Automatic annotation (TrEMBL):
Lineage: Bacteria, Pseudomonadati, Thermodesulfobacteriota, Desulfobacteria, Desulfobacterales
Sorted UniProt keywords: Cell inner membrane, Cell membrane, Hydrolase, Manganese, Membrane, Metal-binding
Entry's Gene Ontology cellular component terms: membrane
Residues annotated as domain Calcineurin-like phosphoesterase: 3-190
Top-rank lineage group of the source organism: Bacteria
The protein, known as: Calcineurin-like phosphoesterase superfamily domain containing protein
PANTHER family: UDP-2,3-DIACYLGLUCOSAMINE HYDROLASE, UDP-2,3-DIACYLGLUCOSAMINE HYDROLASE-RELATED
Species assigned in the record: Desulfococcus multivorans DSM 2059
InterPro entries cross-referenced by the UniProt entry: Calcineurin-like_PHP, LpxH-like, Metallo-depent_PP-like
GO BP: lipid A biosynthetic process
A molecular function GO annotation: UDP-2,3-diacylglucosamine hydrolase activity
């Protein structure tokens, strides 16, 4: 299984070119793929708000979905994606968590920290049926999209740049109680590893910052973070529990 998080693809910055080169490289693999949220810098999945790159990505997912499972977890930069474009994926969700039935939990991570009240309020005010129907009817969609994009960058910079260790460990403890032994989360743009009472939590690298993806083998529990270029170059590093020296490792219990 390959996990991709926080790509924040932006055509103005040209990052879409590298992103679609990565998708080309992924076609040479056989694993299922989970997009862990915030894949585009902004994606309002309604007519008049989408760009060509969104359509190109959806077409790729539909093609690849014929050969493997393609999952998508909405992040804080996606709006109404699971409901409007869910048919492009094997599964897509706007819920806080996705449990695979094999002891693993996947989440974007934007709702982990209960102290991030400004963002949680912003999410509640913008991700609802009333706003969705209002956006469908307003003629100045691109202007509103730019306002939303700017607001997203200012709702929670402090909370996004600092790991909420207590909230993460609380999530890991609750997951373990529910029979889940491995949690994957994104959003914080930091690689980190936590272990508590035999359960593991992996914070995934942000593709936008590092160009790294995550490979997870559900049969063995092996997790490795690697540059996406390794997919096409055949360089598959051995599994290491903690990817590199920059990664925080915490063991509790």
């Amino acid at each position: 299984m390959i996990l991709i998080a926080d790509a924040h693809v932006n055509t103005a910055k040209g990052t879409h070119r590298h992103f679609f080169r990565m998708l080309d490289a992924l076609e040479g693999t056989r694993e299922d793929i989970v997009f862990m949220g915030d894949i585009f810098d902004l994606w309002i999945a309604l007519p008049g708000y989408e760009q060509r790159v969104h359509a190109r990505f959806l077409a790729w997912c539909r093609r690849q979905g014929m050969h493997r499972k393609i999952g998508y977890i909405e992040g804080n930069h996606e709006f109404f994606l699971a409901e409007e474009k869910g048919d492009a994926f094997s599964w897509a969700t706007d819920r806080a968590f996705r449990i695979d039935g094999r002891g693993s939990l996947f989440c974007h991570g934007d709702r982990i920290n209960p102290l991030d009240r400004n963002y949680l309020l912003f999410r509640k005010l913008t991700k609802n049926r009333f706003v969705k129907e209002m956006l469908r009817r307003l003629p100045w969609g691109p202007f509103i999209a730019e306002i939303v994009k700017k607001q997203l960058k200012h709702t929670n910079p402090t909370f996004r740049n600092h790991l909420p260790r207590k909230a993460l460990l609380d999530l890991l403890s609750a997951a373990r109680t529910s029979g889940i032994d491995r949690v994957f989360a994104a959003h914080f743009h930091q690689e980190a590893f936590f272990e508590q009472n035999g359960a593991h939590l992996h914070l995934l690298p942000a593709w936008m910052d590092t160009g790294r993806i995550t490979r997870f083998d559900p049969r063995t529990g092996r997790v490795v973070h690697l540059p996406w270029q390794a997919l096409s170059e055949g360089r598959m590093p051995r599994h290491r529990r903690v990817p590199d020296r920059a990664v925080a490792a915490v063991k509790i219990g």
